[in-house]
Design goal:
heterodimer; A: about 425 residues; alpha/beta; Rossmann fold; Ubiquitin-like (UB roll); de novo design (two linked rop proteins); 5-stranded mixed β-sheet; 4-stranded parallel β-sheet; about 45% helix; about 10% strand; B: about 575 residues; Alpha-Beta Plaits; 17 strands
Chain lengths: ~425, ~575
């Protein structure tokens, strides 16, 4: 068995536990802000974008969109001013990677934002941090002040003409505000609800201006990429999904915690090597990968590689990198029910399919779990799920049926044994 | 089939797309919905309204785009060159039906008892999509109706959360009293802070009613009060009809949009049993005399300028809430409805020897705000409520249907004396710019002593949001502006507030298009129907022998017999009013 130190590869958690996160001096001593200096004094915006594009870095918030390409869209978009937003509205159940990064190394994200701002031509950034994250909010605010005082934010950054500053905003607790367009609505002071796309944020984002929204983990990768080059980054992970990913293990697993590993590491490695396996002599039943909107994968898929492409092939998704491990003493349907309850609660209510659909999914799953459903109900559950994933306005509603669809695929019997045509005739 | 080719303009990028096998070339950025219309395909919609920004939230108009896993809302999604779209695939049909089934499965969708029965977009959609059963069990969470407003009733249980009312209230009218509140399935469209409509800055314009595709928001129905009065032998029931009603009641009763039905309207009201059928146009003429003199007085004496018209009760409540510091700009003239109401229970009562307490005064209005206006405490010049009940065009239409009158085949009849004689100047009150034009016709002749070469003031006509004109009154240049729809009125008032607008006289009508687009008008009321009704208003004006208020012989007689002089003591008592400051929250 390999040791966890051999499996782990720390890029975004490079300073975690090694430096005093409240000290900018510590960060600078560890090599911090040298990438920013280089980006503003020695690199043209196009060169920064090219480096990030070449690195293959893809968004760590869940969608996996190529970061460099996003920056390029915003850089080329008409409109001024332009904005960079750090999405730290980490609300995906079982996910706490962004909190760890912010609490362990806030400057790494600030530096990434400043480099992004330089690349796209933004002079203003917003740090949107989940309201419940009281400590990270304080730490980020403090770090911003330190960076300002040290000349890494504000006017004439690192002695150049480049000017950039960051404002911290926090949400009021709605999960949907982690969705980029809802997040922008929230910053604008409006009800947190997703917008119709297109227009995309890179064309018309915050206050209708070109805007890049990047996840905390994405931004924490930027300085090392600028420092070490695209080739270095590409050598980590898989060809299509480069670099590392922070996974957060929770549930029925011995070592609950965060592990940063190269993209493409297997689920088995995470659960049984880093995670230490299933406690109390129980067996692995399934892992929900990516958060509440993630797929539920059975033991037969333990060797699936955790990267965007491999997970898509098995109908799962990388999502936020949350890994909820479930042992065989639990019921698959209980997990699904709890997810559906969550989405019913968190749907913003804007589009019909999500507003009504999430509530109906929750009722149908309840009905099935309680043995009150017939085969028509099961059929309706499957059809509604299929329609929602393709028809809802935003990612929340599109992803909400994922736990249902993957458990219908991998644990169909769990449904069938509870469904009877002698049950109530119809409806949900 | 060959592509429908448009001639390429130099700077407009074109996109050729295939929709259900039909090729069409359109400007890049055109929505799929619009592009589909070009090849004769109407994609079903619900949250879409032709006069409002598309929202893409009901998900009824979703279509399949080749190469895309996600279905996209046709009302918002722009075409790209080479795009292949399917609007009628099994997946699209299923998604569309599912969206409608889900809407039908929440709340109260009992069609026969709904105010929008047979005029409901959801009902039509369910019919055209062939929904014969709902796979979802109906969930009803009883929610009380908001009946606090004298004008508008909100029924949250019928609401399908399409937000068209929100767009109208926020963007077109900027009254800003309807919002989505709560979230998920608990979302409700409601006034802020859990308040009722009567407790917020709602101006009662009823544009939300016109925007609503279902029966979730509708006029307060007062037809029973009128039936009751008509059946009461002790009541002398009189009625006045607003200018805009004559060009829209026919539409409500199945005739083409813009049908002019003045004579049939009078016949119908008489057949219903009204003792006297009068015309609000008469007091519209009277308004011109009073308001015209008020303007001249302000011009001469250095009074507050610009003077702003006060006929539109939605506008009045809007300025009371939003620009209380500008109330002195309002003309003190009551609206024609209330001038009529005051005269009916004083002058008319005296003349006929009928005790005003036995007079039941009804008005037929295109307007829901008039229902509020008649209840204002300032509107009791006769010491009774001057106007007892206001019915909208839609309510009168219902009464005529209930009575079984074959409206289109009714003969024409004339209004009764003394409030039945009117001029074209009174008629055009129904359209945006009409009050201004009517006032200019009179003011010009009063000031210059000359006859107008042409009665038509074209710069103040039409549906442009804010119109301006300058009129030369024998050397005195009078600068005027006209706004309709409250977002335009707001923009104009912001300029007045700054103090450098330079205007002398401003006409504001609350509703887009003026009264012909009022909240009590036939549904649908769209830009298109507003345009047709405006045309008919000017047509009706043209057809009248008298077109200037000061030429109205009955008005002259009213001054001789009763009022004595414009802005006189009697006018002051009966025809003028004051305004109140109202809070925004």
């Amino acid at each position: 068995m390999t040791s966890s130190a051999q499996i782990e590869k720390r890029i975004v958690l490079r300073n975690y536990g090694k430096i005093d996160p409240n000290s900018i001096d510590d960060y600078v001593k560890a090599g911090g802000y040298s990438a920013l200096k280089r980006a503003v004094t020695q690199m043209q915006p196009a060169e920064i974008i090219k480096t990030v594009k070449d690195s293959g870095l893809r968004g760590r918030g869940g969608a996996g969109f190529p970061t460099g390409l996003k920056w390029e869209f915003a850089a080329k978009a008409q409109g001024s001013p332009k904005y960079i937003i750090c999405n730290a509205d980490e609300g995906e159940p079982g996910t706490y990677k962004d909190r760890l990064i912010l609490e362990g190394d806030p400057h790494s994200v600030i530096e990434g934002m400043a480099i992004a701002a330089r690349a796209i031509g933004a002079s203003k950034g917003f740090f949107y941090i989940r309201g419940e994250y009281v400590k990270p909010i304080e730490m980020v605010k403090k770090a911003i002040e330190q960076a300002r005082a040290a000349g890494f934010l504000g006017k004439r950054i690192a002695g150049s003409d480049f000017e950039f500053d960051i404002e911290v905003r926090s949400g009021a607790g709605a999960y949907v505000c982690g969705e980029e367009t809802a997040l922008m609505e929230s910053i604008e002071g409006k009800r947190g609800e997703s917008r119709v796309k297109p227009p995309y944020p890179t064309d018309e984002g915050l206050w209708g201006k070109p805007t890049v929204i990047n996840n905390v983990e994405t931004l924490a990768n930027i300085a090392p990429i600028i420092e070490n080059g695209a080739e270095w980054f590409r050598a980590i992970g898989t060809p299509k999904c480069t670099g590392t990913k922070v996974f957060t293990l929770s549930g029925d697993v011995v070592n609950k915690g965060a592990f940063e590993v190269p993209m493409g590491t297997t689920l088995r490695t995470l659960v049984f090597e880093l995670g230490g396996g299933i406690p109390n002599g129980k067996e692995f039943l399934m892992a929900q990968v990516g958060g509440s909107a993630g797929g539920c994968l059975p033991a037969s898929l333990l060797d699936v590689r955790l990267d965007l492409e491999s997970l898509r092939e098995v109908d799962g998704s990388l999502g936020s990198g949350a890994l909820l491990i479930v042992d065989d003493s639990r019921s698959v349907l209980d997990v699904v029910r709890s997810c559906m309850k969550f989405f019913e609660h968190e749907s913003c209510g804007k589009c019909t399919l999500c507003r009504e659909g999430t509530a109906r999914l929750a009722r149908l799953v309840d009905k099935i779990a309680e043995g009150q459903a017939n085969t028509e109900d099961l059929k309706l559950l499957e059809r509604l799920s299929r329609i929602m994933e393709r028809t809802c306005l935003c990612g929340l509603g599109q992803a909400a049926p994922k736990p249902i669809l993957t458990t219908l695929k991998y644990f169909k019997d769990e449904y069938l044994i509870r469904v009877s045509d002698q049950a109530t005739p119809k409806g949900a | 089939m060959s592509a429908v080719q448009l001639k390429p303009e130099p700077e407009v990028a074109l996109a050729t797309v295939t929709i259900d096998g039909q090729k069409v070339t359109v400007e890049e950025g055109t929505t799929i919905l619009e592009a589909a219309k070009r090849v004769g395909i109407t994609i079903p919609t619900l949250c879409y309204h032709p006069d409002l920004p598309p929202q893409g939230i009901c998900r009824v108009c979703v279509v399949e785009i080749e190469g895309s896993f996600l279905l996209q809302a046709a009302c918002t999604y722009p075409v790209r060159d080479g795009m292949v779209v399917k609007t009628n695939s099994p997946l699209v049909r299923e998604a569309r039906r599912m969206a409608v089934e889900l809407m039908l499965a929440r709340g109260d969708h009992n069609c026969p008892t709904c105010s929008r029965n047979q005029k409901c977009e959801l009902q039509k959609l369910a019919e055209s999509l062939g929904i014969r059963e709902n796979r979802f069990e109906v969930v009803r969470v009883p929610q009380p109706k908001d009946t606090s407003s004298p004008s508008i009733v909100r029924d949250p249980e019928k609401c399908i959360l399409c937000r068209r009312c929100v767009a109208v209230c926020q963007e077109v009218q900027t009254a800003g009293v309807l919002f989505p509140t709560g979230r998920g399935v608990h979302t409700e469209i409601a006034p802020p802070l859990g308040r009722d409509l009567a407790e917020v800055a709602c101006v009662n314009c009823g544009q939300c009613i016109l925007a609503c595709p279902v029966g979730a928001i509708y006029e307060k129905d007062d037809t029973d009060k009128v039936w009751e009065a008509l059946a009461d032998p002790t009541k002398h029931v009189i009625v006045q009809t607003a200018p805009a009603v004559r060009v829209s009641l026919g539409e409500e009763l199945g005739m083409p949009t813009g049908s002019i039905t003045t004579g049939k309207l009078v016949s119908a009201l008489r057949r219903m049993g009204f003792d006297k059928v009068f015309d609000t146009d008469f007091t519209a003429d009277l308004t011109i005399i009073e308001e015209g003199h008020e303007l001249l007085h302000r011009l001469k004496t250095g009074g507050t300028l610009p003077m702003v018209t006060s006929c539109s009760p939605g506008w009045i409540k809007f300025i009371e809430h939003n620009f209380p510091e500008l109330l002195d700009h309002l003309s003190t003239c009551k609206s024609p409805q209330q001038m009529f109401g005051a005269l009916a229970k004083t002058y008319y009562a005296k003349k006929t020897g009928i005790d005003p307490k036995d007079i039941f005064s009804v008005s037929i209005m295109p307007c829901t705000a008039k229902k509020f206006e008649c209840t204002r405490e300032e509107m009791r010049a006769s010491e009774y409520q001057d106007v007892d009940v206001v019915l909208t065009t839609r309510e009168l239409g219902r009464m005529i249907r209930e009575m079984g009158l074959d409206f289109p085949s009714l003969p024409d009849s004339e209004y009764d004396d003394p409030f039945g004689i009117s001029t074209g100047a009174g008629v055009i009150f129904g359209a945006t710019g009409g009050v201004m034009e009517a006032a200019l016709r009179t003011v010009y002749e009063v000031v210059t002593g000359k006859e107008l070469p042409s009665l038509d003031f074209h710069p103040v006509r039409g549906l442009e949001g804010i119109k301006e004109a300058e009129v030369d009154l024998d050397g005195t240049k009078v600068k005027v502006a006209v706004a309709h729809g409250l977002s335009n009125a707001r923009a104009l008032m912001e300029r007045v507030k700054k103090g450098d607008s330079g205007y002398h006289f401003i006409e504001v009508m609350c509703c887009p298009g003026g009264c012909i687009g009022g909240g009590g008008q036939p549904i649908p009321t769209t830009l298109e129907t507003r345009r047709k009704r405006v045309e008919s208003i000017y047509q009706a004006d043209k057809e009248l022998p008298l077109r200037k208020s000061h030429d109205n012989p009955a008005i002259k007689k009213l001054y001789e017999d009763f009022l004595k002089e414009p802005l006189g003591e009697m006018s002051h008592e009966l025809l003028h009013t004051h305004y109140v400051r109202r809070p925004l929250v």
